[in-house]
Amino acid sequence: MNEKSLYKLSCGLYIISSSYEDKTSGCVANTLQQVTSSPVQLSITLNKENYTEQLIEKSGKFNAVVISQNIDMDVIRRFGFQSGKDIDKYEGIAHREDRQQIPYVSEHTCAYYTCKVVSHLDVGSHVIFVGEVVDMEVLSEEEVMTYAYYHQVKNGTTPKKASSYQEQTEKHGWRCSICGYLYEGEVLPQDYICPICGAPAAVFEKI
């Protein structure tokens, strides 16, 4: 069974954000989809250990933006491989606030959707949230970033907490224990920095 066939599923990449009291966070996900048209409802699936998921649980609201192909990989690194418990995800990032006072990335994004949670489903390691769209807008006409484009052109990796994460076992070299990036080679330079999450050589594991 070839799990890489899952990369062929047609889906985009999105930044999902939420806020509760004075706390705000966001994360990258590829699981956003429309589920109904009247009213318009979207679903999102997030890992229970994800800080953004915990804020959605408490606040009952979230927003989502569609990422464009032109987005800086540093933004994906910030939202995809660092925790909102440790850093302010939006510090130094161009952003606006939606009608629910949740920030969203405003540069190199194609559209945004503001949602109030109407139902959720526990599916083990993850939770599926269904949100009714209370506002949405086109932000740009840039080409959207698909999941396939992220892997094939941007050489992106997938966080371990993502629902689409796949354990890489067929290659040899060094693997970043934070984001899963693979460095192929017998010797990893001591001053090497992961190009995806910015982690130092010390966190790489020999595979």
UniProtKB/TrEMBL annotation:
Transmembrane segments: none
UniProt keyword Repeat present: no
Pfam families: Flavin_Reduct, RUBY_RBDX
GO molecular function, one term: iron ion binding
Record flagged with keyword Oxidoreductase: yes
InterPro entries: Flavin_Rdtase-like_dom, NADH-dep_flavin_reductase, Rubredoxin-like_dom, RUBY_RBDX, Split_barrel_FMN-bd
Domain Rubredoxin-like residue range list: 171-207
Cofactor: Fe(3+)
UniProt keyword annotations, A-Z: Oxidoreductase
Extent of the signal sequence: none
Protein name: Flavin reductase (DIM6/NTAB) family NADH-FMN oxidoreductase RutF
Source organism of this protein record: Longicatena caecimuris
